[in-house]
Amino acid sequence: MTRWPTAWWLCRVEESVAARQRAYTGHVAAGADRAACGSAWFLFYEHHLAGRVAIAAGWLARSRHHLDGGPECVQHAYLALAEVFWPRRAGTAPPHCAPPGR
Predict the structure, then answer these.
(1) pLDDT tens, position by position, for the chain (102 residues)?
(2) What gap in Å lies between CA 65 and CA 61, rounded to an integer?
(3) SS3 per-residue string spanning the chain
(4) Which residues are within 8 A (CB) of 41 and not within 5 positions of it... i.e. 6 or more apart?
(5) pLDDT of the residue at 97
(6) For residue 100, what pLDDT is reported?
(7) Looking at residue 70, what is its pLDDT?
(8) Is the dihedral angle over the CA atoms 16, 19, 59, 24 positive or is it negative?
(9) Is 93 left (phi over 0), alpha (psi -120 to 50) or beta?
C-alpha cells in the first residue's frame, strides 16, 4: 500500500487518490473534522488537476462540511484558496477576476 505523498510525487495519481481516500475515511471514523477537511481538500485538488470537475466539486463540498460551525483554522485558508481559483477554472469568475486577454 502506497502512502499518498510518495504516490503523488511519483505522479501515480490513482494511487495517491486511493491513499487519500483511505486517510479521509479514517479521519471521519475518528471524528477528526479538521483532518477530514484537509484530506477532502486534497482530494478536491487531485481531481481538480485531473479535470474531473464534478468529482472535485463533491470533495470541496465535503471539505466545507467538516468545518461547519467550527472555529477558524488553517483549513479555512485552503477553502478560501479554492473559492478564489475554482470559479476561474470553471469559467464562471466575474469579469474583473478573469485572466488577462479575456
Answers:
(1) 446 566 665 667 788 889 899 999 999 999 999 999 999 999 998 898 888 889 998 999 999 999 888 888 888 888 888 888 766 555 554 444 444 444
(2) 6
(3) CCCHHHHHHCCCHHHHHHHHHHHHHHHHHHCCHHHHHHHHHHHHHHHHHCCCHHHHHHHHHHHHHCCCCCCCCHHHHHHHHHHHHHHHHHCCCCHHHCCCCC
(4) 59, 60, 63, 75, 78, 79, 82
(5) 45
(6) 46
(7) 81
(8) negative
(9) beta
Q: Supply 55's cell numbers.
A: 468529482
Residue type, 81: L
